[in-house]
Amino acid sequence: MVEPWTENLPTTFWIVLMGFLITAACGLIGNYLILRRMALVGDAISHSVLPGLAIAFLLSHSLNTLPMFIGALGAGIVTTVMIELIHKKTRVKQDSAIGITFSTLFAIGVILISLGQTDAVHLDAECVLYGEIAFVPLDLVKTELGPNALSVVKNIPGLNSEMFLNGNLLTIAPPPVIRMAVVTGITLLLIVVFYKELLVTSFDSGLSSSLGINSTVVHYALMGMLSVIIVSAFEAVGAILVIAMLILPGATASLLAHRLPPMFGITVVHALLSAVGGIHLATWLNCSPAGAMVVAGSALFALAWMFSPSQGLLQRWLGRELDELDEEDIERLAKGV
Amino acid sequence: MNQQRKTLAKRGLGAVHALGLLAVFSLLAVEPESAWAAKIGDVAEETSLGQQALRFFSFRDPSVRYAVIGSVLLGISCGLLGCFIVVRKMALVGDTLSHAVLPGVAVGFLFSGVSASGLFDWSFDVANITKNPALIFCGAVVAGVAGTFLVNTLKQTTKIKEDSALGLTLASFFAVGICLLTMIQDLPTGNKSGIDKFMFGQAAAIDEDDIRLMLAVTLLIVAVVFVFYKELLVTSFDAGFARSIALPSEWIHHGLMLLVAFAVVIALQAVGVVLVSAMLITPAATAYLLTDRMHRMLLLAVGFGVGSGVLGAFISFLKPNIPTGPCMVLGASALFAVAFFGGPRHGVLTRWWRHLSRSKRVQRENTLKALFQVLERRDAEPEDSVSLKELAERRRETPDEVSGQASALKQHGFVTLHEEGKKILFTPSGWQLACTIVRNHRLWELYLTNAANIAADHVHDDAEKIEHLLGDDVVRELERMLDDTTRDPHGRAIPGFADIHKPFTPAAARPSGYGRNL
C-alpha cells in the first residue's frame, strides 16, 4: 500500500505534485467552464492545441516553453474563430461545428507529428493521447550551494533529506513542475483578483454589462488562460485526459456545494486525492499514471454522486421511499382511518 | 402522391445500388489471394506515385483490397447514421460515444485470453490473447452503450448539464481505457500488435475477419435505416408530430444510439478511437450544406464518407507511417471546406458572389430607372440622349460614379455611349428593362395605397426595394387586382405594354445631329 512512497520516493513525489498541480489548475478554471456551459469548448481546445504545438515544435526544434505557448494560443484562437465561422455563416449547428473543427485540427496535428517524428524528442502520437507524466522527474533542475547556504538548508527539516540534498547539490524541481506551479499560481491569482468579474459574467450577463464589465474580454481571457493551462499540462497528460481534469473536479464540487468558494476548496481537495489515489492505482495495476489519476478522480466523482446530500443517488432513493409513505398516509387520512 | 412514390422508388434504387456495391466488394474480398504483398507497407518505395496509385486501385493486393473495402463499408455506415446525428444535434454525443468505447476494446482484447472449460471453470492465459474482432466488437458496444446511459442518468439525476456530463463521461471512460491499454502493453504476450492501432487507426490492420464483421454490421445498418426511414425522419424533425402519432421516440432514440455504437466500433480499426466521431459528423455536415432533402443528404453523406475513407486508405498506403484515421478525417474536412465555400446554395463564397451580383444588378437597374426618369421629366422620346451631368444630378452622385455605372450598363448592352462617354442613349433592351422596373415600382405603390390602405407618401421606400424582385407572375397578379393601372398614386403615368414595346429607331438610322455621327 505504501510501496510508491518507500520504493522510489523522489519519482513518486514529483509525479504526484505534477498531477496535483495540473488537476488543481484545470479544476479551478474548469469550474467556470461548467458554470458557463462551455465544457465542450474546453474539449475542443484541448484537442486542437495539437497542431499549434506541432508547428511550434517543427519550427523551433525544441520543446521550449515560449514557442509552445505561442503555438497553443494561436491554435486556441483559430479553434474559437473556426467554430464561430462555421456555425454563424452556415446552417451547421454549433455541436457539429465544434466536432468538425477539433477533429480537423487534431488530424492535422497527428499528421504533422507523424511526418516530423524524430528519435530525439518525445513528442509522439502516444504522448498526444495520455502524456508521459512518468518522465517528468527524469530531468531535475539542481543547484550547487555554497557553504553558508548549505548550513541554512540543512537546518530546514523538510529539505535535509536525500531526496533534495545530495552533497552540496540541492534539487529544486523538474522544469515541467516549475512551469506548472507558475501557471497554477497565476491561475489562482487571476481568479482571486478578477473574482467579481468572472462571477458576474458567468451568472448574469445583463448585470455584468450594466456594471461596465466587458464580457467578451472576460470570455477571451478565460479561453487564453485555458489554452495556457492545457499546453503546460499537455506533455504530462496529453490532449484527452486533460478534459477529465477540467471537468471532473468542478462536477464533483457542484454535487457537494452550491457556493463558489467552497466549490473551489472541494476542487483542490479533489485534485490532491485523485493525484495520490492515481499513483497508487498506477503502481498496483502497472499502468499509465495520468490515466490512473483520472480514474481515481472519476471514482471520487462517483462517490460524490452516490452520497451527495442534495443530489446524491442514495438521497434520491431514500427520498422516494419517504414520498411513497406520504402518499399512503394521505390515502389513509382520506379514508378516515 | 405520385411524387412520393417516385421518391420512394428513387430511394429504393439508391439502396439497391448500395447493396450491389457491397456485394461486389464482398465478392472481391473472398477472391483467392494472389502473390502480391501481404502488407501495405511491403510495397517498394522506389516506384513512382502513378505506379503506386495504379497498384492501389487495381486492388490486386489483398491487404489493399481489405483496406479499401473496409473504408467503403465504414463510409456507408458512418455516413448514413451521421446524417441523423447531425440533424438531431447530437454530434457531441457521437464524440462521447466514440471515446467511451475504448475500455470495451481493451476488455474485449483481454477477454480473448479467457478460456472456459466449464460453466464456472474459467482460466485466463496471457499467451492466448489475440485480436478477436467479435469479442472486441461486443466489448466496445457494451462500453459505448454504458457511456450514453451514464450521460443520460447524470442529466436526469443531478444538476450537471449536458455538456459537462458528456465531457466527463468521455474523458473518464477514455482514462479507464488508457489504463487498461497501458497494462496490456506491459503484458508478456506477442499478440498485442493490433491494439495500438485502435488509437489513430490503420486501415492496413484490417483483415478478413474484420471485413466479415463490417459487412454484416453495414448491411444491418443499411437495412434498418431503409426500413425505419420514415420513423427516423419524423422523430428527427418533428418531435411533437411523432408523439401525436404515438411513435415510441425514446426507443427509436436508443435504437439509433445502438446503431451508432455499431458504426463507431466497426470504424475503429481504420479510423481510430479519437477521430471516429469526425467520420460520423463531417460527411453528414457536408451533405447538410448541399441539400434540403433527407434522402439526398443520406446518399451524399455516404458518397463523401466512402470518398474520404478510400482517400485516407490510399494516403496511408503511400506513406505507411502516417496513421489512416487523420488522413480520412482530413479528406472529409477538405470536402467540407469545399462545400462550406463553394456549395451552390449555402456556400460562403457562392452566397457572397450572389449578394455581390445582386447588388450590382440593383445598381444597374436603378441607373436605368434614373435615365428613364430624366427622359420622362423632359417629356422626351426613348431615343433621346441624356447627358451624364443630368444623370448625376438625378442620382445625386459624382460624375465619376455615374460614368462607371454607365460603362457597366454599356457592357450589358443596355445603353450606348456617345461624345466620349458624355451622352447616354438607351438601346431597345435597356429601354424595356427600365420600363419594366418603373412599372414594377409604380404598380407596387398603387397596390400599397389602394389595396393595403397605406398613405401615398409612405409607399416609395418599400417599392424602391421590391421593384427589383417582382417576377412576371406577381406583376400579372397585381394587374388583375388593380382596376386602373394607368397612373400611380403620385399621378405619374405607369409605363404599359405600349411603352415597353414602343417602336424604337436605332441610333444609326437617325438623321444627323443625333448620337454617334455628331
Your description of this structure?
The complex is a heterodimer of chains A (337) and B (518). Chain A is mainly alpha-helical and 337 residues long. Chain A is built from 15 helices and three strands. Chain A has a domain of 204 residues: ABC transporter involved in vitamin B12 uptake, BtuC. A three-stranded antiparallel sheet of chain A has the order 1-3-2. The radius of gyration of chain A is 23 Å and the shape is globular. With 518 residues, chain B is mainly α. Chain B has two domains: 345 residues, ABC transporter involved in vitamin B12 uptake, BtuC, CATH 1.10.3470.10; 160 residues, Arc Repressor Mutant, subunit A (Orthogonal Bundle), CATH 1.10.10. Chain B is 68% helix and 3% strand. In chain B, the strands form two sheets. Chain B has a three-stranded antiparallel sheet. A two-stranded antiparallel ribbon of chain B has the order 1-2. In chain B, strand 4 and strand 5 form a beta hairpin. The C terminus of chain B is likely disordered. At the A-B interface, helix 3, helix 5, helix 6, helix 12 and helix 13 of A face helix 4, helix 7, helix 13 and helix 15 of B.
Average pLDDT of chain A works out at 81
Sketch the topology of chain B as an H/E string, one letter per element.
Answer: HHHHHEEHHHHHHHHHHHEHHEEHHHH
Report the helical percentage of chain A: over 70%
Q: What is the strand tally of chain A? A: 3
Kindly summarize this structure in a few lines.
Chain A is mainly alpha-helical and 337 residues long. Chain A has helices at 3-7, 9-35, 39-60, 65-89, 94-115, 125-130, 147-155, 175-193, 195-203, 205-210, 215-237, 241-256, 260-285, 289-307, 313-335; strands at residues 141-144, 165-166, 169-173.
